[in-house]
Amino acid sequence: MNKMGRIFNFGAGPSMLPLPVLEQAQAELLDYKGSGMSVMEISHRSDLFEDINHEAQKDIKTLLHLDDNWSVMFMGGGGTLQFSMIPMNFLMPGKVGAYADTGNFAHKAMLEADKIGETAVAYSSRSTGYDRVPKKGEIQMPHQAAYLYINSNNTVYGTEYHEYPETGHVPLIADFSSDFLSRPVPMDRFSLVYGGAQKNIGPAGVTVVIGKKSFLRGRDSRLPLMLNYETFMDHDSTYNTPPVYGIYIVGLVAKWLLAQGGLEAMAVRNARKSKIVYDVIDAYPDFYVGRAQKDSRSLMNATFNLPTSELEALFVESAAQNGMVGLKGHRVSGGIRASMYNAMPQEGCETLAAFMDDFYRRHR
Ligand SMILES: *Cc1c(COP(=O)(O)O)cnc(C)c1O
Fold this sequence. Notes:
One of its GO terms (molecular function) is O-phospho-L-serine:2-oxoglutarate aminotransferase activity. By secondary structure, this protein is α/β, with parallel strands linked by helices. Helix content is 36%, strand content 16%.
């Protein structure tokens, strides 16, 4: 625990936010820029919010090196609403939604698409406990593919793409919820990407969706307005009242990321942080059994098992007594999961690694 009473939160989401962001939000809480109101109280039609909205869009574009051919949109409904919106908008009759099934969130997305149209499993690591992502050439694209859908980082099992598939003329769509803005992304390969904010870039309640304008244009006008991407693109995400406060925090996080040196610097930092934890797993592989195959390891979520579930429970409990919370694995996977998103300082990973080393010595 540091002097402000803050602990290291290794939870998978909602998760840590950068301290300077929280401090700025605190300083501006009662009187945002001399308005005498908090951001929670201002109109979404005010100049103040228009600036917040546009600055956040601009900074996200700068971070990802995007030009004006791209639209940055803010929506509600979490990452999960995107599972449904994507097929509703892009899976037309006669076409097939191709899914790389690399984890439970990719799987859930595919099940939602099944309700809308035809889908195909283009790749699956389900039978091996979702321990990896596809290697080059392993994706089997169906004929008449409407798109290929991937999940960049598998939050539950701890795998992450380190190279994205080449899909040629087939649009590539990706769920970046748990590694959004954690490293540079070759955005020219993608047509639409999204991320729920609460893992890497803000509070729950806002989802950032980034699409190529040419891909978003021409949706079926019979789609309900709030389920049609064009509504968000054409109205700057303010057709109705958007999640104003969440967008404000996402904007502050984007500015913080720029001040850190952008995504190039974050990639170096995140690689260094996760290595500190994986090095301990690799040092005692019979005690800390990593779930992901090494070349698919996530820089965001390290997942591992201990020899018994009793030891796992003790690990979580003792870590909490030492100022590290949120280490219990996802309810579907069990085990231990250490989430090390952008806002987790290196000191947190060092503290966890030292704890793991000590725990091994006492319980091996
Ligand atoms: C958490 C998560 C989701 C679900 O997000 P919600 O905002 O809770 O709907 C979807 N995909 C991935 C990869 C996630 O980590």
